[in-house]
Amino acid sequence: GESVGLHLPTLSVQEGDNSIINCAYSNSASDYFIWYKQESGKGPQFIIDIRSNMDKRQGQRVTVLLNKTVKHLSLQIAATQPGDSAVYFCAEKATSGTYKYIFGTGTRLKVLA
Amino acid sequence: DAGVIQSPRHEVTEMGQEVTLRCKPISGHNSLFWYRQTMMRGLELLIYFNNNVPIDDSGMPEDRFSAKMPNASFSTLKIQPSEPRDSAVYFCASSFAAGGQPQHFGDGTRLSIL
Asked: Is residue B100 less than 8 Å (CB to CB) from chain A?
């Protein structure tokens, strides 16, 4: 469905703890997913992606988990740092051959010192 | 490597004026996207180019909006005449392929129409 960004959910995490940001996607046929980080005054920055034939992918300090059964995507950030404070978006691409992505409303991550 | 470069970063103008936003995609990318971001609607796709050809402009709000891509390294989004409701952050993004590859975004143009 359409995303309406009236109010961003906020996740507050203590520095050094792990963060988990969740995203429910809409289309069971979506075959590719991306997590973006957006800092204030900047554009969305690519963090990590995953294709539908996988259920887990790891990067540097980040892990993306995909649960196709319940159409759920999560981003785990290990040892959260102050520089991780930002808004995080998930994006899904619906089926192969399309260029359109559906972006989530975003979650604001606040890292507490 | 240089990322997607947008200009200007900020634009403030009076309603009725023409506004031109510019974008230089990442070299080698053949797909270019213009998005608009607002608090109310999040990120909305306005138009998509592939190999400099507009493929889908169904997201362009009205005839007041137009976009061009004269070559692989430059695109413009024009609003004429501008209205206060056009105020938003406009992002350009590029990717190596249309789908299945991450889109890389510029830092946007924050547009305010008074």
From this structure: yes
